[in-house]
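Aim 2, interim progress: modelling of the flavin-adenine dinucleotide-bound target.
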Amino acid sequence: MSGKKVLIAGAGIGGLIAALSLLRRGFDVEIYEQASHLGEIGAGFQISANGARVLFALGLEARIRAVYMEPEGKQIRLWNTGETWKLFDLGTVSVERYGFPYFMIHRADLHTILVDAIREAKPDAIHLSARCVGCRQDDRSATLEFADGATAEGDVLVGADGVHSVIRQALFGSSDPTFTGCVAWRGMVPAKDLPEHIMRPVGTNWVGPGGHIVHYPLRRCELFNFVAVVERDDWQVESWTERGTNAECAADFEGWNEDIQTIISKLDTPYKWALLGREPMDRWSVGRITLIGDACHPTLPFLAQGSVMAIEDGFVLARCLEAYDDAAVALQHYERARIERTGKIVRGSADNGKRFHSHALSNSEEAQAYVDREFEESRVEQRYDWIFRYDATAVDLG
Ligand SMILES: Cc1cc2nc3c(=O)[nH]c(=O)nc-3n(C[C@H](O)[C@H](O)[C@H](O)COP(=O)(O)OP(=O)(O)OC[C@H]3O[C@@H](n4cnc5c(N)ncnc54)[C@H](O)[C@@H]3O)c2cc1C
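Predicted structure of the complex, ligand included:
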């Protein structure tokens, strides 16, 4: 289908990766984003080797290395005593084992890198203030409909419009998410505001009864990224932009280690996001219209794989559209290549949440036995190795 026109709804990480992968293969691409200006929220991404592989294959390695942070490893810490265990080595080990680094990157930095690369390939590919409200198709084309009554026509349409996707709704009706009973807090702290023993070049995962916290440095250790998940049922708004207060966040983690209290007190603005769970879908495509990323497999953030799955999706989708002439056939191959893996990630993420929040972590003695068992090297490898080893650039397209 090379040379054909692909419409993409949404300029998040999934939409941008799909666009760049398609432009690199000679497709014409138009991206429609509802926001009036481009950007990402102030937060970090952890990108494992399977995501790095795709980003580097798109020729972005040098730009990413200029702004990313490659941690030495990941550690587990106990919520109250702060006792520390190694989870796994990263840095050189990720490169030795999987051929690519595991890194942390500011979402805005990755977004800018992708937008720049797209604009170099096609300066006017991205259309802003373009809110999609629906879509339709016939034998020859797909049509995207906008809030202002305008339309756009192409050979293929990709819904990359995130967890509240209108394209998914147009294809399959409204979904019925269930509240997980968890709320995620997130925020940033300038590195200079934190003591050295907290601001280390490692990813840290605090585990405790009813909650867990992930933090890591960003931008060559200039910034500190904080995500804290707590079980509570009085907040059910699923949004990146809802603000809370430092005091409310601190109250959710009362009794947790002093390091946690220090970090929470220094957060610039704490944001809160209710975590909703959705069962994996049976299909993502109808004719010449399909979905990628959170639009088709929203994932709880407990394996840090949501955006990495969107990255893999975008690349595999472009490979399928290049490999098969018929749009509907190409989209069936894409869906088949991706649906089982992403479903496994959705379920694995939910399981990891339970693991991080176990009540066996309440007291130190029981916690030691629990951590020894659950985070034992071979078990950790079993949980992560298949994820990191995947190669979206070569996986069989069926
Ligand atoms: C607390 C938290 C931490 C996370 N940490 C990680 C991590 O470390 N690593 C990781 O891999 N993943 C992580 N994730 C998951 C990751 O954020 C998502 O999986 C990822 O952002 C999905 O990308 P996407 O492009 O599919 O959707 P989005 O990023 O949601 O992008 C969708 C885009 O579409 C636009 N849009 C929406 N509706 C319309 C419309 N009607 N018309 C036009 N445009 C529209 C939006 O404005 C947006 O730009 C985390 C998630 C959470 C909640």
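The two ends are 17 Å apart (CA to CA). The longest strand covers residues 178-190.
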